[in-house]
Design a protein that fits this description.
Length: 199
């Protein structure tokens, strides 16, 4: 790991004051130009006399401001470290736009995850009182070159009367499922004396 130790305690942006957390992230005149775009509502008394923790608590308490505040501070902190170590960095004038772009990407990822987590809308509907209902499904197992089928037969109250889970070689998949999956289900139900049912 390559480490760099900097002896000069002064802020690398303004060169006039020691670089503590509050100065580096908020008080420095160069940094304030970033904050004034979205956080000009912050009281001058808090910025002048309060600690950086007071500032954090104030911004986190405002609805909708916490993520913008945290992400902006993160970009500024990265910028300060890069400048101090004389490494290439994003200019402060681009931090506001970079922050918004980053938060938009986070929002897009969350929306995709929410869509994936939505439950399927399929529901099981019971058969008539004098009938039974067979539900079936199939799956491929690419790792083992096999196919499988599952069958469940229920009555009108939802009680399971018969069930089957079977694997076979993928080459005989059609023989296992039939043209639409009902052929094998029908044979299974007939063998178990269940003849009046919808699929």
């Amino acid at each position: 790991m390559k480490r760099k130790i900097v002896d000069d305690p002064l802020c690398q942006l303004c060169g006039s004051l020691p670089e503590n957390a509050k100065h580096a992230l908020w008080d420095c005149e160069a940094v304030r130009r970033v904050w004034c775009l979205e956080f000009n509502w912050v009281s001058e008394s808090v910025t002048a006399y309060g600690s950086f923790l007071d500032l954090v608590e104030l911004c986190l308490a405002k609805p909708g401001a916490s993520e913008l505040f945290g992400t902006t501070a993160w970009f500024i902190w990265i910028h300060q470290n890069k400048v101090r170590l004389r490494e290439k960095t994003l200019p402060l004038s681009s931090v506001g736009e970079a922050t918004k772009n980053f938060l938009q990407q986070v929002k897009a990822v969350r929306e995709v995850r929410n869509l994936v987590k939505q439950p399927r809308g399929c529901k099981w509907f019971p058969p008539a009182a004098t009938e039974f209902k067979a539900n079936f499904d199939g799956a491929w197992f690419n790792e083992s070159e096999e196919a499988g089928i599952g069958i469940v037969v229920k009555d009108s109250s939802g009680q399971v009367l018969a069930a089957l889970a079977e694997k076979t070689k993928k080459a005989s998949y059609r023989g296992l499922f039939g043209d639409d999956g009902s052929e094998n289900s029908g044979d299974f139900c007939t063998r178990n004396g269940l003849t009046t049912m919808p699929f």
